[in-house]
User: Which sequence fits this backbone?
């Protein structure tokens, strides 16, 4: 499964560098999409994207459908699905379906921003450690080891208790701060091997500064790996946020799926209200699954060893 | 000789990491807004008791001396008095830690063993329906949201079917009964442990299975597998004796890397099932602002993760002679 003939042709004409990159991307995408795993992941993710988008609509139709403050005046305890409330309501008379839709928005927000931040930290630290070597490398990697052995959920919990109630952006930042070491290890080892390549020596001889070498020559080469790790980090960020919310340490001003599970658990409705217990858990599990599937399919595109071999077995 | 040196080096490293965590926690505790004294000493305490506790914990000393006191107190087991229980923190930890270790080690060992076993078989039958289905199942298990699956199990197996108790670790009636022997008590704990164990097992088995599968697929491409086949060894012997032992190594590494993750899961499981472990105690302490207990719980949890890491490293060195020589 090599790159197509067009790619190689594009390679030959030096002027067509841009079209070469585009073609490479398209080839990668074709490889990705040909994989049923990647296809399923993208499909699931698209469903959640649609959920997040339409979550803005119900509160406009009727303020009763506002996920946080909207209360159905005719309902005083948890009720099952009906035409008016597709998934039923919670014990305060709030509509579960709109809560579920809003949860998708929060999950995307938390997952992607926390993952992006942890990738930025991880990539920077990994590149610096790998490029600088010696004491800097050893110090940064020991620090990474230390963070890696700390259970991130429990650390964030402890911080939440020391610093008081956390809002959603602080939670995102804390998740990012405790999830970079895995990424930086991978990026570091890539940087170590890149450093030995001739083009880095050439850049140095040409008088490029360390900063320029790191950002112009090393960064573009480690970026695909960083993107891959980002999809896995999205998964773990969503899970940590959901778990925090489930334990009652979420942002009280947002409705996340973890929060919904906390409400059903804490109000003692878990045995009576399956329509309340099931949807948030299914959503958390499926959104993490979709990012995970995308990550695995990307891994196969980036790592030729994992691709399907025709002549094996 | 080399083996011992390797373990010794790892222990030194782990101790250094633990000191960093200890120090980090101290700094955090003193840098965060709020008064450390009021956090360690309960408001309702009598003046003499409070001043005794303050001098014991060194809270009236300058900061650097406080740090020394803090380290000394860690090694002498003096963590202050829990607000909620009104007892020395170390006693509570002493009661909770064994319960956590029991649940944690059983779940890690069982899920790793099952993951390795199934991963081995599935890789062997690559491309067949059993491979596809088990891989999909493993992926789904791996991404399930733990507290939710725990609630679901309680709802189905404990509430509707009634096979298992709703929560807790023991049935008091069984333990009060003086005629109850060791076996009865152990069976009672086992009965309570089954659902939490199942939850942790399902969450962890998927990732071990996937790692074992891909590692086994890599190993099967090696030349010595071809040699083994050419020698005319039976398929089973090639799989179990020649391929699998080499494929174990990445799984062992991943156990080490995922220990912190497993402890997170353990704390959530303990909380949902009211299993009286140290993770649940930490979450409780944090909710009640019981700082002496929360800090001590956190330190001991880190200690458990670090010790488990050393054990995993030793196991790795034992399985892979190349590390030793």
Assistant:
């Amino acid at each position: 499964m090599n790159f197509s003939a067009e790619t190689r042709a594009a390679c030959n004409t030096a002027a067509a560098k841009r079209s070469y990159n585009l073609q490479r991307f398209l080839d990668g995408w074709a490889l990705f999409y040909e994989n049923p795993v990647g296809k399923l992941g993208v499909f699931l993710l698209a469903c959640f994207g649609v959920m997040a988008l339409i979550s803005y609509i119900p509160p406009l139709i009727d303020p009763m459908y506002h996920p946080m403050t909207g209360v159905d005046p005719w309902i005083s305890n948890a009720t099952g699905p009906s035409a008016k409330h597709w998934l039923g309501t919670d014990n305060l008379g709030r509509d579960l379906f709109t809560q579920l839709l809003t949860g998708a928005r929060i999950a995307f927000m938390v997952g992607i921003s926390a993952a992006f931040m942890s990738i930025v930290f991880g990539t920077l630290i990994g590149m610096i450690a790998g490029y600088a070597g010696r004491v800097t490398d050893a110090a940064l990697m020991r620090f990474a080891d230390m963070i890696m052995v700390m259970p991130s959920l429990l650390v964030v919990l402890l911080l939440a208790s020391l610093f008081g109630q956390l809002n959603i952006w602080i939670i995102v930042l804390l998740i990012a701060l405790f999830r970079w070491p895995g990424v930086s290890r991978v990026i570091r080892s890539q940087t170590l091997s890149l450093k030995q390549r001739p083009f880095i020596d050439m850049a140095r001889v040409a008088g490029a500064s360390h900063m320029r070498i790191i950002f112009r020559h090393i960064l573009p080469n480690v970026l695909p790996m960083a993107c891959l790790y980002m999809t896995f980090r999205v998964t773990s960020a969503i899970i940590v946020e959901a778990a925090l919310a489930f334990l009652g340490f979420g942002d009280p001003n947002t409705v996340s799926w973890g929060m919904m599970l906390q409400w059903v658990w804490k109000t003692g409705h878990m045995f009576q209200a399956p329509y309340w217990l099931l949807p948030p858990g299914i959503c958390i599990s499926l959104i993490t699954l979709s990012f995970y599937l995308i990550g695995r399919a990307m891994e196969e595109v980036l790592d030729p060893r994992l691709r399907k071999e025709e002549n094996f077995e | 000789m080399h083996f011992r040196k390797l373990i010794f080096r790892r222990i030194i490293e782990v101790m250094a990491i633990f000191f960093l965590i200890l120090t980090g926690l101290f700094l955090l505790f003193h840098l965060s807004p709020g008064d450390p004294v009021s956090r360690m000493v309960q408001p309702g305490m009598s003046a003499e008791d409070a001043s005794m506790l303050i001098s014991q914990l060194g809270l009236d000393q300058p900061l650097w001396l406080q740090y020394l006191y803090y380290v000394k107190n860690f090694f002498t087991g003096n963590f202050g008095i829990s607000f909620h229980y009104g007892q020395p923190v170390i006693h509570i930890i002493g009661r909770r830690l064994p319960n956590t270790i029991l649940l944690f080690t059983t779940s890690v060992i069982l899920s790793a063993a099952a993951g390795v076993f199934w991963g081995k078989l599935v890789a062997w039958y690559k491309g067949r329906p059993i491979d596809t289905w088990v891989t999909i199942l493993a992926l789904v298990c791996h991404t399930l949201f733990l507290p939710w699956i725990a609630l679901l199990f309680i709802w189905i197996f404990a509430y509707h079917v009634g096979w298992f108790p709703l929560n807790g670790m023991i049935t008091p009636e069984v333990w009060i009964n003086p005629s109850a022997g060791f076996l009865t008590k152990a069976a009672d704990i086992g009965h309570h442990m089954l659902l939490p164990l199942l939850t942790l097992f399902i969450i962890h088995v998927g990732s071990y299975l996937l790692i074992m599968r891909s590692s086994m697929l890599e190993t099967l491409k090696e030349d010595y597998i071809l040699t083994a086949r050419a020698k005319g060894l039976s398929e089973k012997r090639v799989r179990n004796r020649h391929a699998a032992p080499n494929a174990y190594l990445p799984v062992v590494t991943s156990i080490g890397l995922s220990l912190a993750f497993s402890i997170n899961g353990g704390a959530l499981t303990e909380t949902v099932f009211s299993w009286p472990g140290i993770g649940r105690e930490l979450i409780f302490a944090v909710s009640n602002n019981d700082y002496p207990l929360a800090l001590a719980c956190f330190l001991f949890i880190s200690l458990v993760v670090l010790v488990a890491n050393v054990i995993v490293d030793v196991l790795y060195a034992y399985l892979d002679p190349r590390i030793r020589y």
Observations:
- Confidence is low (pLDDT under 50) at residues 308-313 of chain A.
- Chain A touches chain B through 51 residues (CB under 8 Å).
- Residues 120 and 283 of chain A are 27 Å apart (CA to CA).
- DSSP finds 13 helices and no strands in chain A.
